[in-house]
Amino acid sequence: MDQLLTRRSLIGAGLALPLLALPGCTTFGGLGGFGFEDAIRRLLQVSSQRAFANLLQDNGFFADELTRISLPQQFGGNAVTNALSGLLGTSMVQDRLLRLVNSAASNAAEAAAPVVYDSIRNMSITDAVSIVRGGPTAATAFLQRSMGDAIVNAMFPRVGPALSALDNGIVSRALQAAGGISFQGLQQHVASRAAEGIYRAIGREEAAIRANPSSLNDPVLAGVFGVLGR
Q1: pLDDT of 119
Q2: pTM for this structure?
Q3: DSSP 3-state assignment of 52?
Q4: What residues have CB less than 8 Å from 43, skipping those under 6 apart?
Q5: What pLDDT does residue 222 have?
């Protein structure tokens, strides 16, 4: 990106992608030659825009059970070990660490949003009819396969600085107490789990749109997914 985008502009950018019919793609009658590939892109645009609208909030990942990032197993996973809690000297260690890693994910997700939007705009869609007629998250699954590690790679450089900026010493103390994991290991854990959460959030929005395509007042999505999506 040529300039730093605010969270609001990153969210809004998802709906600004062009929706031009592609040469040779299967079209849906009565919608001006609008193609199934275009409908899939539109579905993913709206789904990702809705997902990032929630995830880019300060507590976006932590407040959502579907996307909340658990602690690494070296930290005890979702149940911090008594030894680690004792070394840190607080009964609130689990909540503090959980909130910190999830806040870092929310901050780093700013780097993921434009990567997702660009991928939706540029990806080559094969067998579009099968995706339209697929399961509730078929388009999201296709997006995930198409992107590979792109979200993780985009977020990783941002997670470290976010962790450092939010840290008041608890991360370094936890790393020393737990052992077996470095700062970079924690950084990779947060980036990988955050990427998984982003796809789950997009998939949830896709499923909701497929279940009630007319709710968007979008004639293309209502037409394509309301008829062929059944």
Answers
A1: 95
A2: 0.81
A3: helix
A4: 139, 206, 209, 210, 221, 225
A5: 81
